[in-house]
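Protein in question quoted in full.
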Amino acid sequence: MDRLVSTDWLAQHHKDTDLVVLDATMHLPDSGRDARAEFLAAHIPGARFLDLASLIDESSKVPKALPTAEQFAARMGSLGIVPSSRVVLYDDSAIKSASRAWFIFDHYGMDQVAILDGGLAKWQAEGRETSDGDEAYYAVDYPVPTPRRSVRSKADMLANCATREEQVVDARDTARFAGAPDSGSEGHIPDAANLHFPRLFREDGTWKDTPALRSEFAEAGLDLDRPVVASCNSGMTACVLLFGMGLAGKNDAALYDGSWMEWGSDPATPKESGAHGE
C-alpha cells in the first residue's frame, strides 16, 4: 500500500478485512466545528473515529505533546487495530490533520499506513456513499511499540540555534512567521525558513506531485539533502510538511513537537521577526 491512496483505490479496498479506515479530523478550537458530530453525521463506510484531538500526552510539559507509546497502544487496541493492520487516514479539516495522525502512526512503527488523497471532501464531491452513526468493531490488545521517528525538544532546538546543523522550516502563515502586528506572534525561531503548509496542495485539496513538492521546498530555501526539522504552532501542520517531504523522497526529517506554543511562550528563547533572510 502506498503512503498516499486515491479515492478510487479506497472505494475498491475499503471492505478488505485487514484494512481499517480512520477519520482523523481535528479542527482548530475557534473553527466552530465539532469533528465527532460531523463523523456521526457522515463518514466513509466502515470508518472509525480516531479522536485525534485527545490523542496527546496531557502529562507532558510540552503543549499538545505526542502520545506516549502506552497511550498509542491503548488507543489502537480500543479501535480494534493490530500491528499488521493496513490503515488509511482521512480528514475534513482546514489544517490537514490526517498528517499529524500519520506521523504518530509512523513514529510508533506502523509501516502500512496511508493518507486518503483529497480526504472526505473529495470522496463526497465524487458522489460516493457515506454512513452515519458509529461503526461496530471489537477492542483488541495492542503491544506497546518502540518509537522510531526523530522528535526534537526545546533544548535540542536551542542547541541548533548555535550550530545550525539542522535546517528549521515553519509551517505557519507568513504573518505569524514574520511577527506582523495583530498576528499574535513575536516571529519565529532564528534562521527558520517559512513554508505555509497549504502550498503543498492543489486547489482540489489533493497533494501536489513530487516535482512540484520539491520545487516548493526549494523555493522556501530548503536543501532536502541536509537535515531538516519542521515546526509550526502546536506540532500539527509541521506534520503536513513532514508528510510532504516523504512524498518528495525525504523520510528522515524531524518534528519539533512543542513548536511555537512552547518556544514563543518562553521569554528566554531567541526569536526573530520579519521574512526569512531579512
